């Protein structure tokens, strides 16, 4: 468990940000990698085997980001739908590339068994800036609700709406990083005019179940598969992971819909959010991507076996 004391340089302690503070924050964000060359270029070869559609386009200043989804080519309305989302927080690299690895290496295994719908990079502006928020200092993963203030979230909800009631399983891929503690949580506290309370970063993989519809056996099936690839996060001294009680090995619960989280956007029986720890000395980028892909496969396998 790592902890860090942080001071955020924007805003006045105790006072929520206004337009000036948001503008100052935005002015500090720099493009650090390319969505086109790292993500769109990886999707392009998949067009030979899958249907790829543009489900929206983000226009931020002079920048334009197509939002792409990958579908089973043999879509059959008689089959259940499986939804895979990644990059809701753009900085979480293995969430994006793990989703693409799943499509490239494993999706064909499910042809004729499920309809796959994969949105591998929900927040491309955040991907390029290696940031959690969009340029309006809004967290897309707290914005999956009616009249969403985040266009990233609204676009994904529009994509999913026609199949929302037919989704059997939704897995939303994420990471928990050291910068959550050194940058993103302090920024959140500063933005909202709250005190930042240092916490800890769990060393290892864990899952977030839906406290309103928990599926413990489903979660444990995913944990069992992933532990063959990378280590599972232990509970801290309080029996918690990031402030939430550990309900089973490597599993915590959130009220997904109440918090506006991506995993709440369908009526799927089986829902989970993965959390990979890429900063661990015990994990490589390749392991992190593979852990995400393995989690997707295990989640689909369990859902199909327990329909």
TrEMBL record:
GO terms for biological process: proteolysis. CDD domains: M14_REP34-like. It comes from the Bacteria. Keywords: Hydrolase, Metal-binding, Zinc. Belongs to the peptidase M14 family. The keyword Hydrolase applies. Residues 31-307 form the Peptidase M14 domain. GO terms for molecular function: hydrolase activity, acting on ester bonds; metallocarboxypeptidase activity; zinc ion binding. This is Succinylglutamate desuccinylase / Aspartoacylase family protein. Its cofactor is Zn(2+). The keyword Zinc applies. SUPFAM superfamilies: Zn-dependent exopeptidases (SSF53187). The lineage of its organism: Bacteria, Pseudomonadati, Pseudomonadota, Gammaproteobacteria, Cellvibrionales. It comes from Microbulbifer donghaiensis.
């Amino acid at each position: 468990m790592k902890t860090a004391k942080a001071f955020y340089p924007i805003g006045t302690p105790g006072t929520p940000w206004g337009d000036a503070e948001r503008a100052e924050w935005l002015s500090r964000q720099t493009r650090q990698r390319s969505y086109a060359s790292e993500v769109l270029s990886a999707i392009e070869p998949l067009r030979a085997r899958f249907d790829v559609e543009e489900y929206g386009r983000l226009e931020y200043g002079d920048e334009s980001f197509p939002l792409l989804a990958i579908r089973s080519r043999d879509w059959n309305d008689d089959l259940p739908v499986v939804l895979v989302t990644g990059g809701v927080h753009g900085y979480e690299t293995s969430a994006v590339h793990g989703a693409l690895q799943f499509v490239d290496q494993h999706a064909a295994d499910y042809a004729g068994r499920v309809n796959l719908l994969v949105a591998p990079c929900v927040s491309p502006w955040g991907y390029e800036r290696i940031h959690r928020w969009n340029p309006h200092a809004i967290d897309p993963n707290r914005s999956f609700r009616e009249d969403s203030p985040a266009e990233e979230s609204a676009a994904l909800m529009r994509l999913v709406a026609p199949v929302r009631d037919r989704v059997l399983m939704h897995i939303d891929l994420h990471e928990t990083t050291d910068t959550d503690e050194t940058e993103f949580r302090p920024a959140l506290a500063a933005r909202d005019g709250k005190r930042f309370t240092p916490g800890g970063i769990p060393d290892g993989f864990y899952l977030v179940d839906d406290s309103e519809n928990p599926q413990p056996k489903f979660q444990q099936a995913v944990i069992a598969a992933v532990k063959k690839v990378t280590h599972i996060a232990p509970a801290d001294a309080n029996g918690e992971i990031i402030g939430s009680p550990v309900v089973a090995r490597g599993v915590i619960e959130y009220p997904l819909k109440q918090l506006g989280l991506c995993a709440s956007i369908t009526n799927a029986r089986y829902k989970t959010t993965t959390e990979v720890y890429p900063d661990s000395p015990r994990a490589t980028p390749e392991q992190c991507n593979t852990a995400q892909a393995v989690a997707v496969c295990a989640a689909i396998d369990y859902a199909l076996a327990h329909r």
